[in-house]
């Protein structure tokens, strides 16, 4: 089968299209024919060697595709069923991947297979941040930073759905995009002292914040009221002395059941996945170059197979 293989760490050019053996599912694993795979900044970090992944490896934390043969029978997935998931720390940039069934969920009706592969990591991470870590409630004021990005555009929509008053940050070029997600108050996070702009809207500070990128975490703390909390899945950020704000670090869960529970909000149109760029599998280096620019709007997806 075709796969992108990383044989040495480095820049995007280390992503090479290779012919590799079909993965052999371990007992209990499901074989999936990959249709689409998401591209995120974590893929670039791994390619640079920052996760200590053993070489060689096939990248791709998330994908959508169809179950092959009887491999999903024990888990209740049937031959040809469209599934998607946050499958692990690699394997999705390939024609086929073997993965744990508890990381997979049926693809919601609202999503096409070509786009669904780009959703699981950021949707699960946004959902965990808004609902579990921050436990956002109706009527609270919530800050979502970098709200145009993969994680941010989903988190903003989830927080609006809860009934929170959402204040978002984004670069100027992305303000209209973030307004269209339903956010009224959008602040430029490249403006010096942007937390002060947040406090012009919420004078005591926001109740809770999801800082989706490292660069905004310390400022998100500044924009949060004493007694409030900032959650982030990204490294970095600190709490200045004297501030009573919790900084809650967390990871997105690789959880197929949670993904399945989230299907209704996609099918009802409460949360929309926005794809800004689509690349063929062999163009993975260009997809990584794009994600490393750091200004992704919504998500980037790799098209692996069209059937
Ligand atoms: N640990 C986990 O489980 C987990 C899961 C998901 C994500 N993450 C991490 O969370 C982070 C965000 O992920 P993502 O998928 O949302 O990434 P992404 O889509 O690549 O984020 C792109 C956004 O980052 C914003 N940005 C770039 N530089 C910025 C800066 N200096 N200040 C403010 N905003 C800036 C850009 O906004 P503008 O262009 O508008 O400035 C852009 O819209 C990454 O570090 C990722 O690895 C971790």
UniProtKB/TrEMBL annotation:
User: What keywords would UniProt list here?
Assistant: NADP
Q: Enumerate the SMART domains for this protein.
A: PKS_ER
A Pfam family (short name) is ADH_N
Q: Do you know which InterPro entries this protein is assigned to? A: ADH-like_N (IPR013154), ER (IPR020843), GroES-like_sf (IPR011032), NAD(P)-bd_dom_sf (IPR036291), Zinc-ADH_QOR/CCCR (IPR051603)
Enoyl reductase (ER) domain location, by residue?
A: 10-302
- Signal sequence, start to end: none
Q: Which organism is it from?
A: Planosporangium thailandense
Origin: domain of life: Bacteria
Under which name does UniProt file this protein?
A: NADP-dependent oxidoreductase
**The organism's taxonomic lineage, starting at the top:** Bacteria, Bacillati, Actinomycetota, Actinomycetes, Micromonosporales
